[in-house]
Write a structure and sequence with these properties.
It is a single chain. The chain has 206 residues and is of the alpha/beta class. 47% of the residues lie in helices and 12% in strands. A four-stranded parallel sheet has the order 1-2-3-4, sandwiched between helices. Helix 8 links the parallel strand 3 (149-154) and strand 4. The longest helix is centred in the first third of the chain and has 14 residues, at 6-19.
């Protein structure tokens, strides 16, 4: 079963929350997860108290983004079939270097964590299938969000550039934006203390 549509993701999240008996939540999403988060908030506004978008997908790029090496390989015919079975550790490190703004923050233990996740059964095939499916551009829906929203963005994001943060802020009424300097695509990993403080302040607002 290979349905990578936002409709399916939204249905899955709702089914998961129902299984846990969660009737209302605060939903936070990074990258593709951010796209899933705002789609869920639109589909079930009564179930989402607050929304946090972290370097989230949603808009088409106006400028050419660099992209992570791993994602590029996943979209390359023949090569993507090879990495299903052979995925060198250095490839994982290089992909992290494309995601992080400061390479010095990439420790061997961090590479190990991502490498192990990459090698989990089905993960590489799923990534290839996900990239092959493409991405739905439903950015016109973003302006209809009514949920209190915090937007967090790494200023040096090479995957989804900072311009997208300002587009989200402009589109979502009364949204708040926090830009992290010298940070890339994953602020929660590169600047965890700043991220936690920013998030806590937002969640404590009435």
């Amino acid at each position: 079963f290979k349905d990578y549509s936002f409709d399916y993701y939204t249905h899955f999240v709702d089914s998961f929350l129902l299984k846990l008996s969660v009737n209302k939540c605060i939903i936070i999403g990074n990258s593709l997860g951010g796209g899933i988060a705002w789609h869920y908030a639109l589909a079930y506004p009564q179930k989402v108290a607050k929304l946090v978008l972290v370097d989230a997908s949603g808009f088409s790029s106006l400028s050419k983004s660099k992209g992570a090496l791993g994602f590029k390989i996943a979209q390359t015919p023949v090569l993507n079939q090879i990495v299903k079975f052979v995925t060198p550790r250095f490839l994982v490190r290089k992909s992290l270097e494309d995601v992080y703004a400061d390479d010095s923050r990439i420790s061997d233990s961090l590479v190990d964590i991502y490498f192990k996740m990459t090698l989990r059964e089905g993960n590489r095939s799923a990534l290839i299938d996900r990239m092959r499916a493409g991405f739905q551009n439903e950015s016109e829906k973003i302006a209809t969000l009514k949920t209190p929203t915090l937007i967090i963005w790494g200023e040096e994001d090479q995957l989804i550039p900072i311009e997208h943060a300002y587009r989200f802020q402009k589109a979502i009424p009364n949204s708040q934006l926090s830009v992290f300097k010298s940070v890339g695509h994953v602020p929660m990993e590169e600047a965890p203390k700043q991220f936690s403080t920013t998030l806590t302040n937002f969640l404590n607002q009435q």
